[in-house]
Structure formats: C-alpha cells, structure tokens
Design goal:
By secondary structure, the protein is an alpha+beta fold. It has one helix at about 5-25; strands at about 30-40, 40-45, 50-60, 65-70, 80-85, 90-100, 105-120, 120-135. Helix content is about 20%, strand content about 55%. The longest helix is centred in the first third of the chain and has 25 residues, at about 5-25. It is elongated and about 50 Å long. The protein is built from one helix and eight strands, in the order H-E-E-E-E-E-E-E-E. The protein has one domain: Immunoglobulin-like (Sandwich). It has a five-stranded mixed beta sheet, with no helix packed on it.
C-alpha cells in the first residue's frame, strides 16, 4: 500500500469515528435532568394513605420520544409508557404515579424510582420516599 493510500484510509477511519461519536453524543442529549418527589414525605394518621410520586423530565431536543417506568420499594414495576415531544413548546414533561398503601398499626418507609430511556441514555432518578405511620 502506498503512503498516500494509507493516509487516505486513515483519514477515512478518523472521519467515520468522528461522525459516529458525534451521533452518540447527539442521541444521548435528548433528555436532561430527571427528578422525583413524594407527597407527603411523612404521614401519620388513618390508613390507607395515597402517596403521590411526581417525576419531572427535562427535554433538550425536538422532536423526540422517550419511555419511562416507575419502580416501587415493594418490587412492583409500572407499565412502560412512551412520551412523544413534537416541538420546543415542551421544555419539561411531568409524570405522576399514585400509591395507596398502609393499614392500621403499620409503620412503613416506601419509595419509588423513575427509569427514563431515550436512545443511548438510561437514567434512574430517585428514590423519592415517604415515611408512613398508620393509626
């Protein structure tokens, strides 16, 4: 192989690598911060009580789609759901899960995590927890 062919092949390899690397960075930049909260964080009273878990997902590019799934401290997993974001009007997406839990005399610490998948990005946010004292 001549030197000019070798250099040409090397430059082609570098160019392909740069394009693939750039594509991976672009795919992983669709979703930003993901946070999870629980309300109430603490409860004492008559049970069962309903805990509201709220996830906030920052959207960085448009159009795009992602899926999410809730996971609970008792091992249960919610249905995988898909969100489509068509344009820049949506900067954040809020998703909610409700968990009715507890019975008389129980003292519980429960939590939920939120799994978000978008292209090559896999984020697990949380857990957000709630301390429950049932009377």
């Amino acid at each position: 192989m001549t030197r000019s062919r070798f250099l040409g092949a090397s430059m082609f390899t570098i160019l392909v690598f740069a394009l693939v690397t750039s594509l991976v960075v672009t795919l992983s930049a669709d979703v930003g911060d993901v946070t999870v909260t629980a309300k109430p964080e603490s409860f004492a009273g008559q049970c069962p009580v309903t805990i509201k878990f709220t996830g906030t997902i920052q959207v960085l590019s448009y159009p795009m789609s992602f899926n999410y799934q809730w996971e609970r401290s008792d091992g249960a997993k919610g249905q995988v759901r898909v969100v489509h974001v068509p344009n820049a009007k949506t900067k954040t997406v809020t998703v909610v899960d409700y968990w009715k839990v507890g019975s008389k005399g129980q003292h519980l610490e429960v939590w939920e995590k939120l799994r978000v998948n978008c292209g090559n990005t896999h984020i697990v946010a949380g857990p957000a927890s709630s301390s429950i004292n049932c009377r």
